[in-house]
Amino acid sequence: MSLDPIPGDLYHMQELLDGREQEIVGRVRAFLDAKVAPIADAQWARAEFPFDLVPEYGELGVAGLPYEECPGEPPSSLLTGFLALEMARADPSMATFFGVHTGLAMGSIGRCGSAEQRERWLPAMGRMERIGAFALTEPGGGSDVALGLRTTARRDGDSWVLNGAKRWIGNGTFADLIVVWARDEADDQVKGFVVEKGTPGLTATLIQNKIALRTVQNADLAFEDCRVPEANRLAGAESFRDTAAILRRTRSGVAWQAVGVMLAAYEIARDYAVEREQFGRPIAKFQLVQDLLVRMLGDATASLGMVVRLAQLQDQGLYRDEHSALAKAYCTTRMRETVGWARELMAGNGIVLDYGIGRFVADAEALYSYEGTREINTLIVGRAATGMGAFV
């Protein structure tokens, strides 16, 4: 099939997808247009999650594509990127839900789990019968997580005992499987554990009063002598280097999400400019309005070109930390700028959910910060550029 063009895809990047990939993207887009986008503002306003849609996400058959334990032909990085773009273009909250489940939780199990663990968990997660979460960030830390991780794990016979706390855990209130990163008291190394829903000693509390990604159910997690069997320790997670390898891949996914937000903002602003009249004519006929639209289009086009090339490097096995770090830092910065211009073009109507852009302006703030702040990603790229680390 041939995909309908995305208004902001000026250089026709989606045509780089092959026929099968375009069919998958088209199927996902149709679902998002029919089921997700129409309710996104209402769900966001109420800070409620559409649990009834989760089985339909599973029926799309895209959650398990990257994993050999799940049916289907392995996808290219270009396909998974465009899927992230489409989801964010419809609703950044649901794109985050999906990214946490497939990229962070399934990615941790897929990369660090044993063959038995992958077979035990990934097929059901691929069907979205069991939902995952990823617990790394802690209340007292953020960017210093590699050195400042405080949650502990102590081996006790055939079990591990976890103690500590995590914060900002997407899907954390309802996830069936939570990948928890904790520091082994014996060797001081960070290891990964899969904590199943209902495990004694695990408490999840919904974070209230957010102004971004309100549909996402972020949780504070507390672990008090939470006992996890050795069979649930991720066999291939032996240090923070393993955690960082997962973040390297998912960080590029956030860059794709940022492009999706930019494209949505451009489409909303462009349609508004054509329809809105002032001084007896559409505001699209004013030079300064066209200037804003072109700036937005330029940001989206440059960012889309960057993530497309990043996807090619990923599939060639050539990408490094600095590649995904630069994409995340650059694309989310341009996203923040772009949604601001869209809001500016729409004046007072831009702060009302009814006009479409307000939710994207707010949600952009969360994408700008999670999976590594601009400053931390800048230091990763700066280290690669100079050969010298400037971290504290």
Write the layout of secondary structure elements.
Blueprint: H1 19-46, H2 54-59, H3 77-90, H4 92-112, H5 115-126, E1 132-135, H6 145-148, E2 152-156, E3 159-169, E4 177-184, E5 190-196, E6 202-206, E7 219-229, H7 240-275, E8 277-278, E9 281-282, H8 287-315, H9 321-345, H10 358-369, H11 374-386
Parallel strand pairs: 1-4, 2-4
Antiparallel strand pairs: 2-3, 3-7, 4-5, 6-7, 8-9
Helix pairs in contact: 1-3, 3-4, 3-7, 4-5, 4-7, 7-8, 7-9, 7-10, 8-9, 9-10, 9-11
Keywords:
7-stranded mixed sheet; 392 residues; single chain; 11 helices; Butyryl-CoA Dehydrogenase, subunit A, domain 2; Butyryl-CoA Dehydrogenase, subunit A, domain 3; alpha+beta; two-stranded antiparallel ribbon; Butyryl-Coa Dehydrogenase, subunit A, domain 1
Structural category is alpha+beta
Distance between the termini: 51 Å
Helix content: 40-55%
Order of helices and strands: HHHHHEHEEEEEEHEEHHHH
Q: What best-fitting shape do the alpha-carbon axes yield?
A: globular
Mean pLDDT: 94
Which fold does the CATH topology of the largest domain refer to?
Answer: Butyryl-CoA Dehydrogenase, subunit A, domain 3
Number of helices: 11
- In CATH terms, the superfamily of the largest domain is Butyryl-CoA Dehydrogenase, subunit A, domain 3
Low-confidence stretches: none
